[in-house]
Amino acid sequence: MDVDRVFRDIRRMVEERRGPLRWRRRDPFFVLISTIISQRTRDETTRAVSERLFSRFGDPEALASAPLEELEELLKPAGFYRQKARRIREVAKAILDNGGRVPDTLDGLLKLPSVGRKTANCVLVFAYGKPAIPVDTHVHRISNRLGLVDTKTPEETERELEKVLDKKYWLELNPLFVSFGQTVCLPRNPRCGVCRLRDVCKYHINRAGVES
Q: Concatenated DSSP letters for 102-131?
């Protein structure tokens, strides 16, 4: 598959619907905590809850000593808010033990309590600007639909994408595929009719063959 074309066409489709893709690097601790909040939570809810949380407890020291009941109340719009409140306090305490600094390596991030590969890779990309591939449901779904990979789990998808994609694509892959997955390659009823990649997309070609 022509990877250059894949990224070029996805950029065009995203720009047609949302304008040029823009994202800015954020404070590492904010990225880390907001990514924990984002799990099983809509993007708009994650943004609102994260901003509300940090307006009250803006650093690791404040979060580490925050009353659990108050954290739960602030996190309530997000899914699994009770579990997340406990995890966030644990992570904040671990950051304090690390001198107040969020690790900037995958190994260092994975040593934090309850931090998995997706969260760690989000911190590397969105906080430190280091090439990594955060695989969420959009990245996993789209990569398999297109035929870039043939995998069953996000972890497998990450490993296979690292093999088939040049590092020059890694930084933009997650925000680009997320936007594409929210506007064109939807989880249900993907808009194949407007997709520039339908002639090379494994999912569309297979579906067209079934329907014909």
A: ---SHHHHHTSTT--HHHHHHHHHHTT---
